[in-house]
Design a protein that fits this description.
The protein has one domain: 3-Layer(aba) Sandwich (Glutaredoxin). About 50% of the residues lie in helices and about 10% in strands. It has a four-stranded mixed sheet, sandwiched between helices. The chain is of the alpha+beta class.
Length: about 240
């Protein structure tokens, strides 16, 4: 079973949704047969390449509130994050584009598969939401990539070029085709779509339904017996 997740590294609900999916997989008996792949989504494609405005000020400007109002908005989401074991502290992180982080996530997928990509995704989210580090700062991206074991030369080649930009654009195009307008957005086996950071119980239900429908089981008729059948070790000829 494959789960594809469209998300952004500066989306608080994406981090919360990641934790809820992980909790669901811990309770899903077939979790060892589930592959999780992250797809690119930019919450604000118009954001500056390397911003200087804080997330707090950016939210205040976007929603027409003062900084106290913006801080209260962030606090409400942070309270939900706390329930999932996350400690948010990103008021002063800068508002920037995230395309380079997404390109590195594609590098990680190519170099180490879903496992390495998942590790990088977690490390990027932690850097932003728990340490307030900028996702538009190449130095931060290089440091985080090194933490999960990505080879420095490969990281430099990506950040110093447009490599994987086409992969990011393909993810965004697929999101539009699916009608995705917000993230996280989970797609299970290209068949089931789940919008938002749904509760763990909801995610478990989707996993179980997708598993059952992709692997049909036989129901034996009540009158069936083993008579008149050959087995591998006992059949008279």
């Amino acid at each position: 079973m494959r789960i594809e997740i469209w998300s952004d590294v500066v989306c608080p609900w994406c981090y919360i949704g990641k934790r809820r999916l992980e909790a669901a997989l811990e309770r899903f008996e077939h979790a060892d047969e589930v592959e999780v792949v992250y797809r690119s989504f930019e919450l604000d494609p118009s954001a500056p390449e390397v911003g200087s405005e804080s997330v707090l000020d950016s939210l205040a400007s976007k929603y027409g509130v003062d900084t106290d109002g913006a801080r209260q908005m962030m606090s409400r989401v942070a309270d939900v994050a706390t329930e999932e074991g996350l400690d948010f502290d990103y008021d002063h992180a800068t508002h920037t584009k995230t395309v380079d982080a997404h390109r590195l996530l594609h590098l990680a997928l190519d170099d180490g598969g879903p496992r390495l990509q998942g590790e990088l995704k977690e490390a990027l989210l932690a850097a932003y939401f728990t340490r307030g580090e900028s996702m538009g700062d190449p130095a931060v991206l290089r440091k985080v990539a090194a933490e999960v074991g990505l080879e420095g030369g490969a990281v430099d080649r990506v950040l110093d070029s447009s490599v994987y930009a086409d992969a990011v654009h393909a993810d965004l195009a697929q999101a539009r085709a699916y009608g995705v307008t917000g993230v996280p957005f989970f797609v299970v086996d290209e068949k089931y779509g789940v919008a938002g950071a749904q509760p763990t119980d909801v995610l478990i239900q989707v996993l179980e339904q997708a598993w059952a429908e992709s692997r049909p089981t036989l129901t034996m008729a009540s009158t069936a017996t083993a008579d008149g059948a050959c087995g591998p070790d006992c059949c008279a000829t």
